[in-house]
Amino acid sequence: MLHYPRPPFPSQHQPMPGKTAAMKPAPDHGETSYKGSGRLNGKKAVITGGDSGIGRAVAIAYAREGADVLISYLDEHEDARETERLVKEAGRKAVLLPGDIQEPGQCRAVIAKAVSELGGIDILVNNAAHQASFKSIDEISDEEWELTFKVNIHAMFYLTKAAVGHMKPGSCIINTASINSDVPNPTLLAYATTKGAIHNFTAGLAQMLAEKGIRANAVAPGPIWTPLIPSTLPEDSVKNFGKQVPMKRPGQPVELATAYVMLADPLSSYVSGATIAVTGGKPFL
Question: How far apart are CA 241 and CA 9, in angstroms?
């Protein structure tokens, strides 16, 4: 059994959206631990927010399972290049595409790039997210509320709509929800609300796409140690991050990778409309 770091963590804060290299302790994305077995041989995957955190762990796992990957990210070029290196090291093709997916045109550009550079799309992982912490609803500006919805839920719609026309039967869509969709943190009101919408969107989408042979599922992470944490939460929350779940620690990005692989695996052909909770023992209802 691996022994991952437990809080308290060193005091730290970063400007949004955060960088992996500045995190203490360093997150584990599976760089040395994830071993592939060909479960996704020949597949073509798009991962938003694929530069770091959960997205990087999924990119590494998919590449080592035999998939080529397009990594969509905002502007974290250093992190994205490291993910690219790890994918290529696994012998797979990596395509980087920076840009802000709150813009519908950028979402369509992501899908067009995947079709032209990878030759199609078998797997769409809608993982990118924006969050910010506020103690009072009065602190949440109209612009902040709208930004959170544009990045977290509107982009998911635009990406999915653009991708479906290029997907063959057996393809799948995997959305990153959150334990916040079931147990919302009041200081993450906007973020938690969008995660509830993602949960509902996934359930409806699975029914809508079933006749096309396309599956839709979600993963609901608990507290996971990614750059989003030191860049969006108060320092005291970062110091004790993950302490509230039964395992008394945050999850590492690599600990979610197998959930995303299982949902993308063609052998999971009867799994659609599901939400896989990865929460360190905290119940997800």
Answer: 8
